[in-house]
Structure prediction request, 137 residues.
Amino acid sequence: MTIQFMPYVMLDGNANEAIEFYEKSLDAKVMFKQTFGEGPESIPEDAKDRVAHSVLKVGEAEMFVADTVPGQDNQPGNRLSICITTTEIEKSKKIYESLKQGGQVNMPLQEVYFSPAYGMVTDKFGVTFQIFTAKQH
Prediction:
C-alpha cells in the first residue's frame, strides 16, 4: 500500500492561466486535465470551462491544480491543501478519522464519481487535507 502527499492548488476560475504559468516558470508538464463540463455531473453553464482537476509533473514531483465551483469559498488561506492519495478505502477512512479529531469536516468521506472514498478535512492546526482513494482497476 502506498500513500502519496501532493500539493493541491485551488483557484477561482483562473486555473488554466495558472497551469500555463507553471508550464513556463517551472517547466511543468500537464499529465492530465479535465474540465467540469467533461465530467458526468450536472454543472452550471458558467462553470463548464473551469478546471475540475489537473495533474502537473514538476521535475520528479507532481502537483494538482483546479478551480472551485462558482460561489465556493476561495480565499488566500484555503487555496493550498495537501492531497493524500491511498489505494485502500480502509486506510483512507483511518486517515480521515484521525485528521478530523479536533478539526473541521469540509466534505464527508464518501463515494464520488472519481473515487470510492473522497473527503476533505481541516485539522486542528488549520491545515486542509483532501483524502483521495484511487480506484482499483
DSSP finds two helices and eight strands in the chain. The chain has a mean pLDDT of 90. The chain has two domains: 12-73, 75-137. Strands lie at 4-11, 29-35, 51-58, 61-67, 80-86, 104-112, 115-122, 128-133.
